[in-house]
Amino acid sequence: MSTTQRQKQFDRNRSRATNTASGSSSSSNNSNAAVSTKNVVSPNQRKLQTSMERLQVQQANTSRRAAGSNWMAAAGGGAAGSENQEASVESPPLTKSARMRIKKKAQRNRYLAMDCEMVGVGHNGQDDMLARVSIVNRVGQVLLDKHVKPRMEVTDYRTSVSGIRPQDIANGEEFDAVQNEVVKLLHGRILVGHALGNDLAVLSIRHPFDDIRDTSRYKPLCKLVSNGHTPSLKRLTMAVLGQEIQTGEHNSVEDARAAMGIYNRIAADWEKYLEKKRHQQQHF
């Protein structure tokens, strides 16, 4: 082999070696780059990993119910979560004035006065039938005032006393409906009135005896006003309240208010009298 040929062969071998070395170097670089690329975490992946770690911490440290609330908040239910938190917060305590208003309202409606107007049925209108019923509270506010449809033929409207006319009860309400309203209203209340036995009878209802304050049967008042006899409501109202009622046709609202006014004027003495009687009955 000549010198020129040897030189060419050397150059070929050297270029092959260079190419091989560069190839191995590039492959190693490529593998290193792949490894490094594989180890590099993108910003989005880093955020996802952080949020997952936080979620795992929440679930591990909260109860199931709280976890559900947190999950709803994370899923976009923050408004619902805040509403639940607000609902769970207890309402603030009532002020003193608010408590007094509630107490006074309960006291007003604890005592109710009732009066009824009746028409006559049967032979010569001698039997009573309910035509109107009125109920007021302790300060005279009307809680119920209704006319009642007749269940029998009316033979005497007694208009000069009852104030009832045919059209009043013709447009009235059914007896059963009114009776149910009265029963519900009087349940658990102190009933005040004058000659309440007649009113309860015409309504076909009963009321606990201990919860009745009948101005016609309170003995100290009867003794004071009419020498022990049963006084009329008109006479009692004039004697106790200095007011004149029933100057013409009777009005059941006016009569109920009069009975309540009489009771309010002597309520303290009346209740002491009843308490004394109960105490005496317990010892005999």
TrEMBL record:
Keywords annotated in UniProt: Exonuclease, Hydrolase, Nuclease, Nucleus
One Gene Ontology biological process: rRNA processing
Homology family: Belongs to the REXO4 family.
Subcellular location: Nucleus
Residue span(s) of domain Exonuclease: 110-272
CDD domains assigned: REX4_like
Gene3D superfamilies registered for this protein in UniProt: Ribonuclease H-like superfamily/Ribonuclease H (3.30.420.10)
Sequence segments annotated as region (Disordered): 1-98
Key word Transport present: no
InterPro entries in UniProt: REX4_DEDDh_dom, REXO1/3/4-like, Ribonucl_H, RNaseH-like_sf, RNaseH_sf
Keyword match Membrane: no
Biased composition (Polar residues): 43-64
Protein name in the entry: RNA exonuclease 4
Segments of skewed composition (Low complexity): 16-42
GO MF, one annotated term: 3'-5' exonuclease activity
Main location class: nucleus
Annotated organism of origin: Drosophila suzukii
CC annotations in GO: nucleus
Source lineage: Eukaryota, Metazoa, Ecdysozoa, Arthropoda, Hexapoda
